[in-house]
Write a structure and sequence with these properties.
This protein is of the alpha+beta class and 144 residues long. It contains 3 helices and 9 strands. The chain has a 5-stranded mixed sheet. Helix 2 runs antiparallel to helix 3. It is globular and about 45 Å long. The protein starts with a strand and ends with a helix. The relative contact order is 0.28.
Length: 144
């Protein structure tokens, strides 16, 4: 059974399944994260898998779009579900979030996705700063 984080699904509400991939990216004792506006909201880099796209290709694309970094050697750590409203799509979603660990290899430039900024944080601080409790759980288990 896949773990669930966040608020439970509402009875009678229809949710659209949205698979996504997210990365824990350690380097020199810190984690590469993304800060998304408005908010700001601290998140693990990643996002939705496009139709026809493999999870690994999506992971590389999303991390580079949100942080400007290229990654290497992704390893699947696990997955969790969360039920949420996605205002940018006007959609109630059941997000199936697959978490990977990978290495930040090199920075290509600034994030290309609007409203995102790359930042570095220790795992201990990240656990408390991450907006999503599922992300925080995986950082806690795999980094502390």
């Amino acid at each position: 059974m896949t773990m669930r984080f966040g608020t439970p699904p509402e009875r009678g509400r229809r949710y659209v399944l949205r698979p996504g991939v997210y990365a824990i990216l350690p380097k020199d004792g810190r984690l590469l994260l993304t800060e998304q506006a408005p908010g700001p909201e601290i998140q693990l880099p990643g996002g939705g898998i496009d139709p026809g796209e493999s999870p690994i290709v999506a992971l590389h694309r999303e991390v580079e779009e949100e942080t400007g970094w290229c990654i290497g050697r992704p390893t699947r750590l696990g997955a969790f579900r969360r039920f949420t409203y996605m205002p940018e799509y006007d959609l109630w979603a059941e997000k199936l979030c697959t978490i990977y660990a990978a290495r930040p290899i090199h920075r290509r430039g600034d994030p290309t996705e609007a409203g995102h900024r790359a930042l570095w944080m220790t795992p201990k601080h990240a656990v408390h700063a991450l907006e999503n409790t599922g992300d925080a759980h995986f950082v806690q288990v795999f980094c502390l």
